[in-house]
Amino acid sequence: MSRISDNEVEFIKRPQGQDLQADLTLSTTVQQIIEQVRARGDEALRDFSAKFDRTVPEAFEVSAQEIEEALAGIDPQTRKDSEFAIAQVKRFAQAQLATMQPLEVETLPGVHLGHRIIPIETVGCYVPGGRYPILSAPIMSIVPAVVAGCDNIIACLPPGAHSAMIAICHLAGAHRIFKVGGAQAIAAMAWGTVSIPAVDKIVGPGNAFVNEAKRQVFGKVGIDALAGPSEIYIVSDDSADPRILAADLLAQAEHDVHTRVGMATTSERVAQQTLAEIERQLLNLPTAVTAGEAWKRQGEIVICKDEEQLIAWADHIATEHLQVHTRDPHGTASKIRNYGSLFIGQNASVVFSDKCCGTNHTLPTMAAARYTGGLWVGAYVKICTHQWIDDHGIAAIAAPAVRQSRTEGMQAHRRAAEIRLDPQAIDQITAGQKD
């Protein structure tokens, strides 16, 4: 199916034009933070903590006593709910890992190829502070690392984060927890300091500074993805309930004023009623200041002429969260290929994945769903190939390798292949008798 464009659909509400004048100081500021942390380590972390967080912890690492106090202070029901979420995320991650198997195959007589599934040794999980203490955030990044079998799981969260976040980092399985936030935490995990060990890969969402820091340290360490503001899109037909559509859109809109919130439908009635319902629900929504501003800035409603166009539009948007509210939601969903996570049918709200149903809520944004999925247990392992070749295999592959190396002019490669055919050949070559 060919790509669809904005002028092929009808907009009931368009998002405001985005500010194309990006903050040119962001990249420079983050670069300076990284350079300072790399050069001055803990001393720089203390300076940045005082500047950005207005507090400097006595020690960056959370002590055993602090963990005990955080566990004692967490509301019992909150702990139970968090442990429920941990169990669901763990169960799904274990099921995913079970689909990944080591491989050994003999592709030609004597040519044995394979791969191993190897956990990443040390991972750093960034836990955002943000507008709300999102208790599920550490669960989503830490639990899959536990399931994957990573040796060292490091969590970093801003020093002002709610103590319940420390408790849940511990319950989720973090081996060490540090009170360092922002771009400086990313720099510390990438390069290491006296207090904080260097990691092999950094995962977890954060603000624009965290995102830019992850971009700049990529290569020194691995990263999961570069994430923008949260997104939700809903595709529907005339069977959808505008009250539910509005509730789900506003649920995501309360994350941030930059959240992208939209829906596409084949029904003008559903479009108009949803538009009205959003305004009605905003009247008594406690978080209306944020959700309303997000809807004003980024909200959109699109009318498509038929299901084919609806599916094409969904693939064009390639949203982080995609909900399907149609008469045959499984049928519609099966035709869509670009999404971070898919929510099939009226009951499958994004809120369940955000909190506790088991799928990961760290997902691609900014249309990155066209080429990648979200965070999952596979992000914490490496698939590393190996090969071993017996004499029968040499007979099958050495001659083609010799000829290809000769064609390419790579004579050392040719020699390395020839010596497997004739171990005496290298002696004749070095003696000048042949080449």
Automatic annotation (TrEMBL):
Keywords of this entry: Amino-acid biosynthesis, Histidine biosynthesis, Metal-binding, NAD, Oxidoreductase, Zinc
Pfam families per record: Histidinol_dh
Primary enzyme class: oxidoreductase
Cofactor(s) listed in the protein's UniProt record: Zn(2+)
Highest taxon, organism lineage: Bacteria
Record pathway: Amino-acid biosynthesis; L-histidine biosynthesis; L-histidine from 5-phospho-alpha-D-ribose 1-diphosphate: step 9/9
Keyword Lipoprotein included in the entry's annotation: no
Catalytic activity: L-histidinol + 2 NAD(+) + H2O = L-histidine + 2 NADH + 3 H(+)
UniProt EC number: 1.1.1.23
GO terms, molecular function: histidinol dehydrogenase activity
InterPro entries: Ald_DH/histidinol_DH, Histidinol_DH_monofunct, Hstdl_DH
NCBIfam families, per the entry: hisD (TIGR00069)
PANTHER family the UniProt entry points to: HISTIDINOL DEHYDROGENASE (PTHR21256:SF14), HISTIDINOL DEHYDROGENASE HDH (PTHR21256)
Function of the molecule: Catalyzes the sequential NAD-dependent oxidations of L-histidinol to L-histidinaldehyde and then to L-histidine.
Family: Belongs to the histidinol dehydrogenase family.
Protein name as catalogued: Histidinol dehydrogenase
The organism of origin for this protein: Scandinavium hiltneri
